[in-house]
From TrEMBL:
Record field: transmembrane: 6-24, 67-87, 93-109, 121-137, 143-159, 196-217, 223-242, 254-275
Keyword Protein biosynthesis carried by entry: no
The protein, known as: HTTM domain-containing protein
Keywords assigned: Membrane, Transmembrane, Transmembrane helix
Record organism: Chryseobacterium contaminans
Length: 276
């Protein structure tokens, strides 16, 4: 199966979100380095620059601070370059080459990281890899793996939450909103200590994550779940400072729609509004 114009539209939407993620992330890291140095406590979703160490002399290059800054600057410029190509609708082998370079940079940054990666970081790397393989093979069925990965992410997170007594009672969400990293004083003040609000919100999140796979059932479910997903991650971005999750997950949503079309054997080149 070869990539057609309509499939490229979905791919372009995804690439725009990925580039925005990498651009904003790079800027934030460089600002932290400039004003706080390499010993600053950066958010848990970043690269944990506060502990620079050398496990082996042969790895000195990997953990070198100047190399890190250079890689992040190049990461910013290449993401900006790809974004420009997409916006200007320039289809070139440079897209594939630039994406391959970004994959190398991301692997370098993760090799340097001492802590486990967040879901958003896993998603960005996986999406870049699948996009590169798609451009290389011209087979867009590879992009179904992105949809599978997103469903696994939602389902596994839902299972973890429903397995936790604190999340089932709403206490987990309450404590999360009071933390320095993800907390929001405005929401806490609005909710007060109302345990029923935290209980309701916790179960809405759990049910959304556990049932997300049902987006494939029919067109109406597809629209409902994708819209709920956008609103869910928009809420997290605004109130819990998780803008990286918003961009990472939304970079995968075009392929969820594609997978829905594939499962129901709906041609990719039709007017999508006719199926609803």
């Amino acid at each position: 199966m070869f990539i057609n114009k309509y499939m490229l539209d979905l791919i372009c939407i995804s690439i725009i979100f990925i580039c925005l993620y990498l651009i904003l992330d790079s800027v934030e890291i460089l600002i932290n380095i400039k004003y706080y140095g390499f010993d600053s406590p950066i958010s848990v979703n970043k690269f944990f620059l506060r502990k620079i160490y050398y496990k082996k002399k042969t790895l000195k290059f990997i953990y070198n601070q100047k190399v890190l800054k250079t890689i992040i600057r190049l990461r910013f410029l290449i993401s900006l370059f790809i974004l420009g190509l997409v916006i200007l609708q320039i289809d070139s082998f440079l897209n594939s080459l630039a994406i391959f370079i970004l994959i190398i940079f991301e692997l370098y940054l993760r090799l340097r990281c001492q802590n486990r990666l967040s879901s958003s970081e896993h998603i960005i790397i996986f999406n870049l890899f699948c996009l590169f393989c798609t451009f290389l093979t011209k087979d867009y069925r590879i992009l179904n793996f992105i949809s599978l990965y997103i469903v696994i992410c939602y389902t596994s997170n839902g299972i973890q939450k429903i397995s936790s007594v604190k999340w089932r009672t709403g206490e987990g969400l309450k404590k999360l909103l009071k933390t320095n990293i993800y907390g929001n004083k405005l929401l806490v003040s609005i909710f007060h200590e109302n345990k029923y609000i935290y209980f309701l919100l916790s179960w809405l999140i759990i049910l959304f994550q556990l049932t997300f796979v049902f987006f494939i059932v029919n067109p109406h479910f597809c629209v409902i779940y994708l819209c709920l997903g956008v609103l869910f991650h928009l809420f997290l971005a605004i109130f819990m400072k998780l803008k990286d999750f918003f961009l990472a997950f939304l970079s995968s949503y075009p392929f969820l729609f594609f997978t829905f079309l594939e499962i129901h054997n709906i041609p990719i080149n039709i007017n999508y509004f006719y199926i609803f």
